[in-house]
């Protein structure tokens, strides 16, 4: 029992001593998370620009632009609808507020109006602040209009606009909010949760399937055969290698999730712990697949390319970065190893479901682990 | 069958891979505290023989007894009394020499403290104690070879298999290895040694078996083998070897 654990411990030591492997498995995800942070969750110093698409082009929409532009530190930029979409698509801007046609008319007539917010990811911190300023400015305008209307009604006919304005000024222009700033596009966390789950599963697959490569190297340089001349049984060696791969992946999952949570603040401590626990299941599943791959591969190149094809294939077809809503690709994605892990991690990280709710995904991964282990043991060889 | 005197006995060993007969009906024995050399050209079947003797490979036919135990039926027991130094540098290059030795020591059944002590003693034996904490990848070829050998000593074996332990190293390292092997024999260890270097076999081995085409074609002490070549003057082991195995190139 202790020997497989000692093998796993030594493998972890080797992993931590191998700078290239460390750089590949840790530095690359860090770069990826940094890019995601910039694209979807960055909170640079506040120099907010409110990007508008003004489909109304009326007096009140212009007043709104003026009011927002008058806020200290705020800048206003106008786009037409297509330009805004393109800029969002290329991540040049993270938010665009769309003032609908008829905005001025509806507002003057007291109807509720809505300004939609198109965004990339959750729009970034700047976008959130801009949204609050736009909402407040719009409510000020609406409130002023309502107060004027109320004052005019109360004072009756024959009262000059100057007096009404003075009264409105005195009252402070308050009033019930009639403007709703809608949050258009995807739910804020969805993209990030999906991306984190996608990146995590992809790197775990890479790391562990590449473990197949190191097994082939061990077979070629004779360390596996050498181990078989010790008191170690084949089953102990096999168990040790499985534990080692799983431990290595678990360590990676812990580091990646810690990074994701620390940098992007996407989950609380409970969600974090649950995600780490679930990642262990995924690590075990991909470890068994890695051992199957090692059983087939005769050369280092075969193991490497097998790992690359498996990981990339699974990542692409699982919809890790471009989710498939429907159609044949969505059906195919259900047969990938990443999909149950991504679904569960997404659910856990977003708080829409706890660990206990992921029983189906857990059962799928457990089944993959068992079948993978059985196949890998049958294929396992030391020479 | 092993006796008080005979420590290893191989009888009728055969092994084929697909259509290639790698080893064909080989029988020989090694006495306790003997250095037995197994010589042969490339592809003669030396490594396959060692793999069968060391329980890694199951023979198609024949049996091996080591220390009164069958290597086929009691492989686990046999592994407790053997140490194997393969032809390749079978070490973990990212780990230090001490970590490698401790790891293989633990796999050989030593406890943690015991393994560390044995690692230090064995590194001292091959003059590498001071470099023990360095990663093996930083070592020269000769240093790696020396570590490769002492890994096989971690289990304190009674029988040591050394498969071409001096390939590609400088004369100093080779000389150090010779001294180590002779010292181990003097301490009571039995050694099976394969090499391509005839002068090495001549210097170290008490008896030599020459293997070619998977069969044992000669067996005896270096002097007996030289005497078997009906030639006047000083005869070298290399001349004997070439005479027996021919001069054509091998794969």
What would your notes on this structure say?
The complex is a heterodimer of chains A (about 375) and B (about 250). Chain A is of the alpha/beta class and about 375 residues long. Chain A has two domains: about 1-40 and about 190-380, no CATH class; about 45-185, abc type-2 transporter like fold (3-Layer(aba) Sandwich). In chain A, about 70% of the residues lie in helices and about 5% in strands. Chain A has a five-stranded mixed sheet with strand order 2-1-3-4-5. In chain A, strand 1 (about 50-55), helix 3 and strand 2 (about 75-80) form a beta-alpha-beta unit. The model of chain A is unreliable at about 175-180 and about 180-190 (pLDDT under 50). Chain B has a domain at about 1-80 and about 195-250: P-loop containing nucleotide triphosphate hydrolases (Rossmann fold), CATH 3.40.50. In chain B, strand 9 (about 205-210) and strand 10 (about 215-220) form a beta hairpin. In chain B, helix 3 packs across helix 4. Chain B is globular and about 55 Å long. The two termini of chain B are about 35 Å apart. The model of chain B has no long low-confidence stretch (mean pLDDT about 90). The chains are: A alpha/beta (about 375), B alpha/beta (about 250). The interface between A and B is medium-sized, with 22 and 30 residues.
CATH superfamily of the domain at 1-81 and 194-251 in chain B: P-loop containing nucleotide triphosphate hydrolases
Helix content of chain A: 55-70%
Q: What percent of the residues of chain B sit in helical stretches (DSSP H or I)?
A: 25-40%
Radius of gyration of chain B: 18 Å
Radius of gyration of chain A: 29 Å
**Rough shape of chain A?**
elongated
Subunit organisation of the chains: heterodimer
Task: Count the domains of chain A.
Answer: 2
Ends apart, CA distance between termini of chain A: 24 Å
Can you count the beta strands of chain B? 10
Low-pLDDT runs of 5+ residues of chain B are none
Can you tell me the CATH topology of the domain at 1-81 and 194-251 in chain B?
Rossmann fold
The spatial strand order of the largest sheet of chain A comes to 2-1-3-4-5
């Amino acid at each position: 029992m202790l020997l497989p654990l000692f093998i796993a411990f030594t493998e972890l030591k080797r992993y931590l001593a191998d700078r290239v492997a460390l750089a590949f498995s840790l530095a690359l995800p860090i770069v990826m998370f940094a890019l995601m942070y910039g694209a979807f969750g960055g909170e640079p110093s506040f120099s907010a620009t409110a990007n508008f698409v003004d489909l109304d082009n009326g007096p009140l929409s212009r007043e709104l632009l003026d009011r927002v532009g008058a806020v200290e530190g705020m800048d206003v930029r106008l786009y037409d609808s297509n330009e805004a979409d393109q800029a969002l698509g290329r991540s040049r801007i993270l938010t665009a507020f769309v003032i609908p046609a008829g905005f001025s008319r509806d507002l003057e007539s007291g109807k509720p109006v809505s300004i939609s917010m198109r965004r990339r990811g959750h729009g970034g911190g700047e976008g959130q602040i801009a949204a609050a300023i736009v909402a407040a400015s719009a409510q000020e305008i609406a409130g002023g209009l309502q107060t004027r209307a109320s004052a005019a009604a109360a004072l009756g006919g024959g009262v000059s606009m100057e007096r009404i304005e003075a009264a409105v000024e005195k009252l402070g222009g308050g009033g019930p909010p009639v403007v709703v700033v809608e949050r258009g596009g995807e739910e804020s966390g969805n993209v990030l949760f999906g991306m984190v789950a996608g990146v995590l599963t992809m790197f775990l697959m890479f790391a562990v399937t590449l473990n197949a490569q190191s097994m082939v190297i061990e077979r070629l340089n004779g360390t596996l055969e050498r181990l078989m001349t010790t008191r170690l049984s084949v089953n102990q060696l096999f168990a040790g290698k499985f534990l080692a791969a799983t431990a290595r992946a678990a360590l990676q999952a812990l580091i990646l999730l810690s990074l994701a949570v620390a940098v992007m603040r996407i989950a609380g401590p409970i969600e974090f712990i649950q995600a780490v626990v679930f990642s262990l299941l995924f690590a075990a599943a991909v470890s068994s697949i890695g051992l199957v791959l090692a059983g087939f591969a005769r050369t280092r190149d075969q193991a490497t390319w097998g790992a690359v094809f498996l990981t990339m294939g699974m990542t692409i077809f699982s919809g890790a970065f471009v989710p498939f809503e429907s159609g044949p690709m969505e059906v195919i994605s259900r047969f990938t190893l990443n999909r149950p892990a991504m679904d569960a991690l997404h659910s856990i990280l977003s708080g829409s479901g706890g660990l206990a709710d992921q029983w189906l995904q857990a059962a799928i991964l457990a089944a993959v682990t068992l079948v993978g282990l059985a196949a890998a043991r049958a294929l396992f060889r030391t020479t | 069958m092993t006796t008080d005197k005979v420590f290893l006995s191989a009888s009728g060993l055969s092994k084929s891979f697909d259509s290639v007969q790698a080893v064909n009906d080989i029988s020989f024995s090694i006495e306790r505290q003997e250095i037995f050399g197994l010589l042969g050209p490339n592809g003669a079947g030396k490594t396959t023989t060692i793999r069968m003797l060391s329980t890694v490979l199951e023979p198609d036919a024949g049996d091996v007894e080591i220390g009164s135990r069958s290597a086929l039926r009691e492989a686990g027991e046999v592994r407790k009394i053997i140490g194997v130094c393969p032809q390749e540098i079978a070490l973990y290059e990212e780990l230090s020499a001490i970590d490698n030795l401790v790891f293989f020591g633990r796999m050989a059944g030593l406890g943690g403290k015991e393994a560390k002590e044995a690692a230090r003693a064995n590194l001292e034996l091959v003059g590498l104690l001071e470099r023990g904490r360095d990663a093996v990848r930083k070592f020269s070829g000769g240093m790696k070879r020396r570590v490769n050998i002492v890994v096989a000593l971690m289990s304190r074996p009674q029988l040591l298999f050394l498969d071409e332990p001096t390939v590609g190293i400088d004369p100093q390292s080779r000389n150090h290895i010779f001294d180590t092997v002779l010292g181990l024999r003097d301490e009571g260890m039995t050694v099976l040694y394969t090499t391509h270097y005839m002068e090495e076999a001549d210097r170290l081995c008490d008896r030599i078996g020459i293997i070619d085409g998977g069969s044992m074609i000669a067996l005896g002490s270096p002097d007996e083998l030289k005497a078997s070549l009906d030639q006047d003057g000083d005869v070298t082991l290399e001349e004997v070897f070439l005479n027996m195995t021919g001069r054509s190139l091998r794969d």
